[in-house]
Amino acid sequence: MTTTETFEILQPYPIAEETFVIPWDLEAPPMGHFPMNSMVIRGSEPVLVDTGCPAVRAQWLDAVWSIVDPLDVRWVFLTHDDRDHAGNLLPVLAACPNATVLTTWFSLGRMAEEWETPIERCRFVNDGDTIDVGDRTLVAMRPPLFDNPTTRALFDPATSVLWSVDTFATNLPAPTGEIGDLGDDDFRDGQLFGGRLVAPWTAWLDSEKFSAVVNRFSSLGAAVIAGCHTPVLRGPRVAEAFDLLHGLPGVEPWQEFTQTDLDGWMAAAEQEAASGQG
């Protein structure tokens, strides 16, 4: 098991055989920190799962190429087109001439607002589709929670690793690689906060219909769950996270911060700056 003793930001760490998370972290006061992760499957046909954030492009690329030769990369699974997932797509494609992008029609259209993705290097992957990547067959699935309509999760039956994308998002007191390092209260509160932050529409859901979607996701039988905005879940935390997810429609919506909050933060920052000058 990876622990916080071996966890470093933007240093790849193994979560299963030939499977690595590339971790980054975004400070999000006053709620602590949010993970900003991506993943690499280093099999016979290496797969990059998402392409990281442009804010740390150079460091992210260095981290990925430290574990896989860009000329060997055959697949880029783009879970969706948000900047924290697709931010380094074009540099990746430039460095990986043998790679095919696994994406959706809608994602291509949305990305066209900023850049043109070479469609001749794309393959469309929808909910339930499988992808043969040489030594394993991956499964794409729409996850229960998402903040972008193009979102696809990815399951690797060879390792029982599930990339949950934004489902199981959580805020953290400090960066950590494994969710088992959190106390019970931080784990529960983080799951409920992250779920409502990513998908505020859960309050409108029919609980039974939503539970059926969650059950379909959990029936994959993942032993290890990684995601963009969560530390790695494994062991009893997997079942606990699914239990909390089932109950999300019954939780009151999160109340967003207001202008009064922002005014208070700015005033506190000005006071701190003034005291520092004194």
Automatic annotation (TrEMBL):
Xref: Gene3D superfamilies: Ribonuclease Z/Hydroxyacylglutathione hydrolase-like
Transmembrane residue ranges: none
Domain of life, source organism: Bacteria
Record SMART domains: Lactamase_B (SM00849)
A Pfam family hit: ODP
InterPro entries named in the record: Metallo-B-lactamas (IPR001279), ODP_dom (IPR045761), RibonucZ/Hydroxyglut_hydro (IPR036866)
Domain Metallo-beta-lactamase: 35-229
Protein's recorded name: Metallo-beta-lactamase domain-containing protein
UniProt source species: Actinomycetospora straminea
Lineage of source species: Bacteria, Bacillati, Actinomycetota, Actinomycetes, Pseudonocardiales
